[in-house]
Design a protein that fits this description.
The chain is an alpha/beta fold. The protein is 51% helix and 14% strand. The chain contains 29 helices and 22 strands. Helix 4 links the parallel strand 4 and strand 5.
Length: 795
Amino acid sequence: RTKMAEPTTTAEKANTAAAATTTTGAAPQHQHQERGMARRLVSRLGGATRTSLSIVGLGTVVWAVQEYQSLQDNDGASSSKEQGQCKKRVLVVPFHRLRIVERTNNMTLGPLLQRLSSGSSGSGEVVEMELRELVDLIHQAAADPSIVALQGTFGQGFQFSVGGYAQLEEIRNAIRLFQQSHRIHTEPNLLDPSDHPNKSSSPPPAREPKYTFAYADTFGHPMDTGNKEYFLASEFQNIFLQDQGEINLFGLSMSKTFWGGFLDNYGIKAHVFKHGKYKNAPNTVTETQFTNEHYENTFSIIEDINQTIVDGIMSSRETATADLATELDERLWDYRMWRELYSHGVLPSTVAATLGLVDACTPIDVLDHLLEANKHDEVKANLQVVFGKALDLEKFRATEAMPLQTYRAVVAKRKKQEAYQWRILEFTNAWSEKSFLARGLFYLVGQKTTNPDHMEMFKDEVKARKETIAQVNIIGSINDKVAAATMAALKHAAKDKDVKCVILRVDSPGGSVTASEAIYQTCIHLGKPIVCSMGNVAASGGYYVAADCARIFASPTTITGSIGVFGVKLDLTDFASRYGVNVDHVTTGSNAAPSDPLQPMTLNIEKTFSRNVDRYYTHFKRIVSTGRHMSMDHVQSVAQGRVWTGEQAKEAGLIDEFGGLCRAIDHARNTYTAGSAQVVVYPKKVSFRERVENLLTANENGAISKKTMLMEIWNEVVVATAMSERGSSISTHGSSDTDVLRTAVSSILDKALQGSNTNTNLSGIMLTMDESDALKLLLKSASTLSDSFPPSFWG
């Protein structure tokens, strides 16, 4: 290897040092050049990015302009149609194919099994529909310029399924609103069109009255003596009945089954503890007939409801019978005439037409003839000759029929389009605030909300539309399961900042004291106003949970009140001894087994039940006193377990206003929101598939056993099958009540002999006005309900 020579002279050393210095100075200069190139590259990339984003933003703005213009064109087309260029349609509501419920149940296979069992494609099947949806569809049709008439069909009778007269009143009110929809723009609670930034400030055009008519093959329902179908049909302007049809108007009746004698024969004793001489629910297991108080209260209820029905029919048919009343030189429909009708019996169609109960008799539905009459003058002239004064053809202007299910889909699509339009408007206004160019483009296409003067107004309206009203339903007997679901829904609504008010929709005869108390406590600590809407029945525990609401709405035929408490202890010791069975108890206290059906009544147990009933009754009255701002003396006068109709309850101060669910929602919307709040129903529906998936997941996680999971799924199938089998009937039990009670007693004894009944809770303390709940209580007290009877038994 050759070793490099070291610099020896002074000159060589200087040259070496200079070269090192040159090399060291070149490195920073190279790094500076690299940093400069990086900055230029980043700058160019930033510029390209800004350009790209600008192009994307401009494209988005152009798209929004096109979408907005399309929406404006659609609005213009709709306006042109409103002026008479659209097709005129009649909305056909097949009441004989509807099952009206408070809340549809998506957790069962009922609709699918029903379709499979009938083998139909769906055109003639019974449709289950929520009351609020049906009323909303009729309201939508009232405001729809393309719907100019409404027809209700009732078919062969026997088929229209509805929970009670209160629901019928809500549907009648919707039909009346449809008939008066030409005056809807004068309603003070509707927003002035000039307040909307995208609407014309000119007043709405005058509308023509809309026509309503009904057709039925018969109103002869042998089991429904009050004739709910005719009560509903009487709200239509004209009623057409088949030539061979008939009407049954026999008055109302209410029957009760008393098991006192049956239980005595088998040596079964039901010890009842109650407060309120009108607390009649436990009479079903202690008496053999109506007591004086029971009869008095029951007759008062049906008499008041019957009066409401008569007044409603008389008011609706007053115009149709005006000519007849003049000819008879007296008012046709006075109460003496109704008493004669009740005693007369079945009314053939011709007699019904003579009396003015129907307008005309026809062999078939007149809808097709009416539609043809508007297309051909000859048909119109012939039809007018046939019906004469009974039918004013000038009122009917439709040329097409619109089935309810079709219109249901149209309204759903329309609501989606409206929501989409609002999203576009929100987007365009957001861009208008950021970009002057976007604002100019939007203003050129006519979006006035881009004007600074309108932006604040639009923001307020968007904010108002985000507000919601939570509707929480309490349906059926109030038990622990219902209480848990209701409390969860209320807490969810309390946490949602967009929820401004809660509508508590109650359709319940009551139930457990503790379950009712849990719901009540959740309501009073909710922190948001609650408005109560009562359905067909909101009594006992149903009134308990509603007593503290800011405002209570009910229909005149709603069943409510029943402010009272009762407890039941079932004693089977005599029954067991008759068959040589003796059960002895070893306890550490005299009250160790108070609810055991094979533990005889003792003085200590009697005192325990009495103290609890006294305490709950006093607490119930105090709740009513606080919530309704009444003195305890006044509460006592309207309590005592007495059941009231809505009409009577208003006089007693137990409710505030007459009205259905829509009236309660309007009150909440106008009182607690800006006026545009949407209604959201809690809890959200769960499909059968989701229910099964949740059970499977819970089983995998070890939350429930495999046996419990299979039983839950089986219960869902049982309920679904029962729903498909009973069709449109309101309630059908698989076996007779006597067989059920015999089976229950045997099962109770079985459980007792096996030593499985260790329940020591005082589950017999109840808030209910319903006799079926009282019977259910007896069976549940022996822990036999879930094992002996499928859920479908209870209807």
